[in-house]
Amino acid sequence: MLVLHLHAGDIPGSIEHLLAQGGRMQMVYATHIDGREEACYLAAPGAGKPFELWRVEVPPGGLPSMAAHVPLLGWYEREMQDLSGVGVVNHPEPFPLVIERGAAPAPFTQTPGAARFAAPHVLPEVTGDDVQELDFGPIRADVFESAQFRFFYIGERILRYQPRLFLKHRGMEKRFEGLAPDAAVVFAERVSGVGALAHALAFCQAIEDAAGVQAPPRARAWRSVLGEMERVYNHLHYLGALADATTLKVGQAEGRLLEEQAKQLAARACGQRLLMNVLRPGGLRRDLVLPADFTTHLDKLEAASLRYLDQLERTSTFLDRLHTTGPLPHTLAFDQGATGPVERASGLDRDLRRDHPYAAYAEHPPEVALHRDGDAYARYRVRCDELRAAFALLRRLLDELPAGAVHVPCAAPADGSGLGWAESPRGSVYYVVHLDAHARLARVKIKSPSYSNWRVFPYTVHGSNMMDYAINEASFGSTIAGCDR
Amino acid sequence: MALWTFFGLARGRATSDWPEGDAQAAGQHGVQGMPRVTAQACAESCAACVAACPTDALRLAEVPDGADVAPQPGIALDYGRCIACQRCVEVCPTGTLQASDEWALATRTRADLRFDPQQAPSAHDALAAELQNTIARRFRHSLHIRHVDAGSCNGCESELQALMNPFYNLHRLGIFFTASPRAADLLLVTGTVTEPMREPLRAAWEAMPEPKWVMAMGACAISGGMAREGYAGGSGLQGLIPVDVYLPGCAPNPAAIMHALLLLLGRSEQHLHGGRHDG
Nearest 5 degrees, angle CA A234-CA A238-CA A244? Predict the structure, then answer.
């Protein structure tokens, strides 16, 4: 990661230059270290080029909002004002996003009188003959994460859709502060439980980046193995949930059964069904010993999964519900910051495993699935292709597992900073870490894929119909915890 | 569609016998359990495990050792805070803390989750036993659950959803998830209970008809877990609503959830008393 010190006035020009070169902004957040208030913009110039962190001292009047130019920064700017009290001027959506703190000090600064949005978020009124309003949540039927959704609709047609997220915002980024890097891994694992491996991996790699060390080859190979196992169980879960949304009951049961078998394999590999408690900065906490029959079970799971995919692809009642549902155009996906299978279904050819290899992906590059139609079917097909590719990748990784140590000493320097990333089953995860004078964590910023994709999702709902909503939501496959943190 | 029916039938029986059958039937082969405090004395002035614990589940506590012998250094462990991350086991120099494969550790009281070497294990609570009998009589054959996520990492939901897969097939035990709290017997809560989720949670609990029961699932719902003491994190169900069953873990696996549900119904035994494992 290149760290550049810029002035606030340079930002619009730098962003314009980045976009013209085919790059993309990732996020902006604030730090308060040693009394200095800075905004940090994370920029991705493109495949193979190093990421850049633009550090900007916040001017007294606040920062100019870039959201009108780069819409995906809109949520980050609002969050920065909510949580860090950094003023953002001329924001197109000048409402609190994460917390409505009133006159209370911002959690990350504690200084009273910090900037905040004055007006609460009030939805524009939607009136007219036959317009109905539906408030759904935060407690939903069955076992679901908590979030609230408001629909304005006429008959079947949705006029306007507004999700209310961040009800379960836990303040996880703040929990990292003051911790030694080794002790913080378990927190990263529990930011999004079903993305535990990717989050822990991105965090560990951020510390390794700050320390200037690389995990040994065997540890890197294990990290890729576990990362692909996380992809396998999550994608199987996704397919089961999508079958459920289309009321394909046997398809749902089969997807859930295969997910269960994948989780049981995960436990046999590392002792934890959600792949927690394995990673640490510098490598792994311990070497893994696979049971003798592990590959036999993996082969069986692969064969059953491939049969399942074939069967889904032959079920017209299932496919009919996906075709043309919830289309996300290419430009919208780019501008609003879609990531992972969602962006790859809209023709954005990006995958951190290939574009910025980490773990063992330089030696074992993945086959990146790409579809262009941007509808629920394309999102489903990307996941299907990725599931097949993950099994193939697992086989290669396990066949060529290097010998040797699984850990090297990794001491991040005082006042250092680092960036780590991982392509989770739901898309790109970034961790930026800033250390203090005692080499403890002063600020950890998390970019999680569900945050990115929840920002995009409502654009596919406006103007669609109620019957397709659940299918569309399932086709995104986002989590609430990852978004809310 | 006919193809799916054939497909399903051809797959044969996928369902486990758990809680009947051997350990394999639980499907948790290789799963790490909660740490166990052994009789081995701690090293002098060692607090490595206390420093390593991310959720303050451990604290130093001297072990009383008879009238003439000086007390030994020891530790107390609160399973209601433990996330089974194994960090304490890794740093323990004496083997006082050891890894175990015990994960079915649901209890009927908060006190039963606390291991303290200074307190002798209490006799099994007669009141709790009586309560359990009452529940058992009413709900032995059918239980309807309303789940509420009050601020989790989604790990608990992932494992709860697994209960409905064909391997665990929770329905075979007469236990169902229901949409309306008005039709629910048990409120199953996950997550740390963030401020915005307090009111919806309370409303769901109040909407349930009597008699009603509450289960706190996971370290977050029991004690606040990973987000405890943060600006947005809560401290679980403590001081909010009364809890009838505590299920520690992070995240508790599906077989552990089933054990906890059956414990409520008087159809399984509690394995942890005063923080000490049976046997």
Answer: 145
Residue B184, φ and ψ in degrees, nearest 5: -100, 145
| Alpha-carbon gap, residue A201 to A351, rounded angstroms | 16
Tokens of B22: 């051997």
Task: Supply A211's token pair.
Answer: 């320390």
Nearest-angstrom CA–CA distance, B154 and A192: 6
Name, in order, each residue with C-beta under 8 angstroms of A320's C-beta and a sequence gap of 6 or more: none
Domain extent for B219: 126-270
Interface-testing mutation among B7, B83, B148, B165, with chain A (most A C-beta atoms within 10 A): B165
**Which residues in chain B are closer than 8 Å to A142, comparing Cβ atoms?**
147, 177, 179
Encode pLDDT of B214-260 as tens digits: 999 999 999 999 888 788 878 999 989 999 999 999 999 999 999 99
* pLDDT (tens digit per residue) in B39-79: 888 888 889 999 999 999 999 887 776 666 677 778 899 99
Please give the mean pLDDT across all residues of chain A.
93
What is the chain A residue with the closest CA to B144? A142
Q: Does the residue B89 lie in any domain? A: no
Q: What CA–CA distance (Å, rounded) separates B232 from B195? A: 7
Nearest to B232 among A169, A273, A479 (CB): A169
Q: Which of residues 132-171 of A touch B (CB under 8 A)?
A: 138-139, 141-146, 166-171
Would you tell me how many other CB atoms lie within 10 Å of the CB of residue A90? Answer: 12
Whether A191 has its CB under 8 Å from any CB of chain B: the answer is yes
Joined together, the tokens standing for residue B105 give: 């550790």
State how far the Cα of B87 lies from the Cα of A285, in Å rounded to an integer. 9
For testing contact with chain B, the best of A97, A98, A110, A139 (most B CBs within 10 A):
A139
Question: Cβ(A448)–Cβ(A473) under 8 Å?
Answer: no
Name the closest residue on chain A to residue B147, using Cα atoms.
A143
**Residue B249 located in a structural domain:** yes
Report if residue B58 sits inside a domain: no
Interface of A with B in 54-73 (CB under 8 A): none
Q: Which of B7, B165, B196 sits opposite A256 (nearest CB)?
A: B165
Give the per-residue pLDDT at A78. 93
Cα–Cα distance list, A264 to A60, A88, A233, A251, A297 (Å): 54, 47, 10, 20, 10
B-proximal residues of A, 359-378, CB under 8 Å: none
Q: Is the pLDDT of residue A424 over 70?
A: yes
Residues 435-454 of A with CB under 8 A from B: none
Residue B235 domain-assigned (yes or no): yes
- Our count of domains for chain B comes to 1
Tokens of A105: 């000090």
Test B154 with A482 for CB contact under 8 angstroms. yes
Strands A88-89 and A63-64: parallel
Q: What is the pTM of this model?
A: 0.95
Evaluate whether A246 touches A471 at the Cβ level (below 8 Å). Answer: yes
Burial class (CB in 10 A: 0-12, 13-18, 19+), A315: middle
Q: What's the ipTM?
A: 0.92
Highest mean pLDDT among A85-94, A392-401, B108-117: A392-401
Alpha carbon of A51 to those of A41, A108, A355, B248: distances in Å?
10, 25, 11, 41
Q: Which residue segments constitute the domains of chain A, with CATH numbers given?
A: 2-89 (3.30.460.80), 173-478 (1.10.645.10)
Spatial CA neighbour of A96 closest among A80, A109, A73: A80
Q: List the CATH number of the domain containing B199.
A: 3.40.50.12280
Place of tokens 């002792």: A271
Mean pLDDT value of segment B102-121: 87
